Amino acid sequence: MAVLPIRITGEPVLHAPAEPVTVFDAELEQLVGDMLETMDAAPGVGLAGPQVGVGKRLFVFGWTDEEGTEWRGEAINPELWISPAPTGWADEDEDAEGCLSVPGERFELLRSQKAILRAVDLQQRPFEIEAEGWLARIFQHEYDHLDGVLYVDRLETGLRKTAEKAIKKARWGVPGHSWLPGEDDLEA
After folding, report:
1. Which of 1, 10, 3 is nearest to 43 (CA)?
2. pLDDT tens digit string along 72-97?
3. Interacting residues of 188 by C-beta distance below 8 A, sequence separation 6+
4. Rounded to two decimals, what is the model's pTM?
5. pLDDT digits 0-9 by tens, 98-147
6. How large is the greatest C-alpha to C-alpha distance in the chain, in angstroms?
7. Is 74 annotated in the active site?
8. Of the residues 27, 132, 142, 164, which is catalytic?
């Protein structure tokens, strides 16, 4: 397994819809293993194919909930159903979200509290997870990557302008930027 460079906003693969996975082989198995290792090294709770330069519809996730249950795996060619997002203002603690492709930044974003993820694993076995709270947020965030959407694209106007300023100040927003967990001094 290997830690892969994580693409930073501005890389075209991050801003375009990903293609379905059609070949399940040793190369895909290696990619998923590398993505899990990269996510852990970052550290993060999810990582989508486009974030490592692969425009395919897959993501990995790894998070332990309050009861100590570990949620870890891969979602290949996922479908996601979500409940309506709450209305009102995002809480700066409860709703703060970050992204490995916009490292070092965190902004509040209201997300749906419930989601149903349907996908297949590396052996092409279908599975379904009914998620609530933070796990539902992880699934929504990673699924957005597969549609070419970063969480900063969903921010309310004021926060979006702040995010755009931070991206411009870091000289991101154009192709050619990435970081390598464990070697570069960046974190989400």
Report:
1. 3
2. 999 999 999 999 888 888 778 888 99
3. 42, 44, 98, 99, 100, 102, 103, 104, 105, 106
4. 0.94
5. 999 999 999 999 999 999 999 999 999 999 999 999 999 999 999 999 99
6. 46
7. no
8. 142
